[in-house]
UniProtKB/TrEMBL annotation:
UniProt-recorded name of the protein: Peptidase
Gene3D superfamilies: Glucose Permease (Domain IIA)
Bias kind Basic and acidic residues: ranges: 201-226
Domain annotation M23ase beta-sheet core: ranges: 260-354
Source taxon at top rank: Bacteria
Low complexity biased stretches: 118-127, 190-200
MF annotations from Gene Ontology: metalloendopeptidase activity
Length: 365
């Protein structure tokens, strides 16, 4: 490697002596101005070679440009355009050992022949302009060059900011989507809960309405029945005004030939007046064996009312009205005491409970 002889050691002058003094001499280490001459300089071995300038930079400058590009990528704001181009000469031994700039990643395309010719001619496409531009335009695209943006640091910074904004926008959109989904699910749950509550309330109101309707219908039926019975009661009458029930319908006992009682017994003193329970016709009146004296009153619907064990019969034929006296209580026939034995037979001849029949006409037994 070629080198120059080391310059004599220079010692600074004492304090108070100007550094640019050319006459200071004193003590050990005294110094004076050194002017290299042909005799004092060793001859340089080899030869110097200046690399061909490309866009204002030599081959060795390309290596420096790679460092500048690395600084731009790391800091995002460094630029080599703010500094003048530097030409550096290296000895052959070092220059020959350096790699070709075109073989470096990201730099070869900037050193293409087309870019060189475009730089020499001063004209060409937008891509050639970018290639011929300073090495700090490594991050500048063709569109950036056309728009006048040739600062690689600013271009890289703009791209980073743009990418950050896009990522932030995507993150915000994802958060918003998650929030909207959560809100939709919450709204759906609330709507379902409200619907369930509304359905339950509607079902309860329907049940209450049906219950009220049923009660109203029952009340209406009860009132209608009361009115009907009241009208019937006005047209029907109990056979005795004062009595005591001693035997009921269907009661079992050996004193009755059929084994059970077939009517209703009203105990009362002999001679107590008997009244027609409803208007009708006297079908028969006279002696009837174990029944004693009996009157059969036939109603308009064919129902027969039997009055038995009478002491006397006031009416034996013809029409009678409700409440008319038709006979008197007695103890004739098979009896153990004075009472009215009353039986009710439907038009088909079947016997029914006189107490139930009287209650069905609105009468209280």
């Amino acid at each position: 490697m070629a080198s120059n002889r080391t310059a004599p050691h220079a010692t600074l002058p004492p304090q108070g002596v100007p550094h640019d003094s050319e006459t200071y001499v004193g003590g050990e280490g005294a110094w004076e101005e050194w002017n290299p001459t042909e005799e004092s300089v060793r001859p340089v071995r080899g030869r110097h070679r200046v690399a061909k300038q490309r866009g204002g930079l030599g081959r060795s400058s390309t290596v420096l440009g790679v460092g500048v590009i690395a600084a731009v990528g790391a800091g995002g704001i460094a630029t080599a355009q703010d500094k003048p181009a530097i030409s550096i000469s290296l000895p052959d031994a070092i220059a020959d050992s350096l790699p070709d700039a075109k073989s470096l990643p990201g730099v070869g395309t900037l050193m293409s022949d087309d870019a060189e010719s475009a730089s020499d001619s001063g004209s060409g496409t937008g891509e050639a302009v970018v290639a011929a531009a300073p090495l700090t335009t490594a991050g500048v695209t063709t569109a950036d060059a056309r728009q006048g943006t040739t600062d690689a640091g600013e271009a890289l910074r703009a791209r980073i900011l743009q990418q950050a904004e896009q990522q932030q926008a995507a993150a915000d959109a994802e958060v918003q989507l998650a929030a909207e989904k959560e809100a939709a699910e919450k709204a759906a749950a609330e709507a379902k809960q409200q619907q369930t509550a509304a359905e339950a309330k509607a079902a309860e109101e329907k049940r209450e309405a049906e219950e009220k309707k049923r009660q109203a219908e029952e009340e209406a039926e009860r009132k209608a029945e009361e009115e009907r019975l009241a009208k019937l009661a006005a047209s029907y009458s109990m056979p005795l005004s004062s009595y005591t029930l001693t035997s009921t319908y269907g009661q079992a006992g050996a004193m009755w030939s059929s084994g059970q009682h077939t009517g209703l017994d009203f105990a009362a003193p002999t001679g107590t007046p008997l009244k027609a329970v409803h208007g009708g016709t006297i079908k028969s009146a006279g002696w009837s064996g174990s029944y004693g004296y009996r009157i059969v009153l036939e109603l308009s619907d064919g129902t027969e009312i039997w009055y038995c064990h009478l002491s006397s019969m006031t009416v034996t034929s013809g029409e009678v009205g409700t409440g008319d006296v038709i006979g008197r209580v007695g103890a004739t026939g098979n009896v153990t005491g004075a009472h009215l034995h009353m039986e009710v037979h439907t038009p088909d001849g079947a016997g029914v409970d006189p107490a139930a029949w009287l209650r069905g006409k609105g009468l209280s037994v």
